[in-house]
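Ticket reopened. Same input as before:
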Amino acid sequence: MPIWETTMLEVSNLGVRYGRHVALDGVSARVSKGEICVILGANGAGKSSFLGAVAGLVGTEPGTSIVMNGKDVTKLDAHLMVEEGVALVPEGRGIFGELTVAENLRLGSHARRAKADAGKMLDFVYGLFPRLAERPRQLAQTMSGGEQQMVAIGRALMSKPDILMLDEPSLGLSPLLSKELFKSLAIIAGEGFGILLVEQNARLSFKTADRGYLIETGRIVGEDTAPNLLNDAKVMSAYLGAVAH
Amino acid sequence: MLILLTGLLLGGTYTLIALGLTLQYGVARIMNLANGETLVAACFVTFWLYTGFGIDPLLGLLVIGPGAFVVNWLIYTWLMQPLVKRASNRGMLEVDSILATFGLLFLFQGLMLQAFGGSYFNYEFLAQPFSIMGNSFGLNRVVAFVAAAVIATGLYVFLYHTDRGTAVRAVAVDPRAARLVAIDVRKTAAFAFALGGAITACAGTLLSTFYTFNTSMGVIFTMKALIIVIMGGVGDVRGAVLAALVLGVTETLVASLLDPGLTLAANYALFIVVLLFRPQGIFGKRPA
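Engineering reply: fixed in the latest deploy. New output:
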């Protein structure tokens, strides 16, 4: 039985180019409420461009359509996409290193949509990552890689997103920390947040996810439920391990 | 002791000048070479309000601060934003904004020269002795220092203890990440540029109460601000305060013990020392 009854994010015919280089071509994907969706692909396949385009950081080609909660948001700038319920944890995390943990989280609720429930969300984030609750006054840049990842995810959650997007969250984390991370993502999805992540780590992400897309040189080449993808020997041999190439 | 206190009093006004520049450069990423012209314009407007209408310079702050805010906001949105839009990277914006504000410097200087001529101006305001620890200082200097301290403290509270101020700092740290937390970077940059201009103008008003000014001195103050900002570290409020006080004391030391004509030379000597030994600023970390 599909758990993605209501589609929140619907991307159709997405194209992105950098000068003459075509990064994405005719990509379509959707994410529903409370669903964990993975886009799996190798380095340079266009994963980051996909998230960047949805988040409003990267310009899209004519013909692209991005619809969020029934509203056309194709041309919205990044800060307005947050108000539509899209939060991105970018590659390299993008936290404010010179600001404290508490300031990073407070900035997360800068969006108007987040203001009313900021206290509730902060409790949720601190409950999810008790480590952050212990050191609200520490400068974010002095924390370990895993803790910085918590700050980044916590900050994105503070905007009370409908969809949390993560760009290779397990990159640079130990296998143990990666496992912890995906556990946290499962909890977040359980609270009703949609999750869209791009990954190279096939096994770990498909174990947690509901559904997956395979992306290769800017095109979607496969789509299925996560268990099916996990049991597909061809897929797993192509994407098993950390780096495909 | 006298030299130290005189220097610290001067450093108070310098702090404001530097805070204005660091807001414009650190947040809006505009290296505003015409910053000193804002200061000089404020000196003249204060003079005009005081001698023409009898408006107390301290009350004048309430007009000049907001006025400079509006003017600087217009400068940013009309003249700087096109540069920001077409710049493909930060280095390009830096070069463009330096050239553009270099031009503005001469435009404003020319306009003021036209209006006020090239002679030196001053006026008498609170020109009475005030005693601190047995030493006598001009009351105007003391009042200017106190006012500067109040404004600087206000700015600090705004930047570090309000949501809006935290957003301003976030843009200074990482504009791209700031967009991801729903901050309108364009608006915030315009606001920071305008606020920086307002603070520099307040510094000009306070400076004029005890300092002889003329239309062409702006560039000297831009340099002083630049020295302080680099010494304190770009965007670092604590660093700017400390560096401004150091500069004030150094200048006074050189002027009293050596020769008043050497203060500018002392400025640059200090600048060179900082660039050689601590280019990342007093509190700054070495870039990784």
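Residues 2-120+135-277 of chain B form a domain with the ABC transporter involved in vitamin B12 uptake, BtuC fold (CATH 1.10.3470). Chain B has a mean pLDDT of 90. Please confirm and we'll close it.
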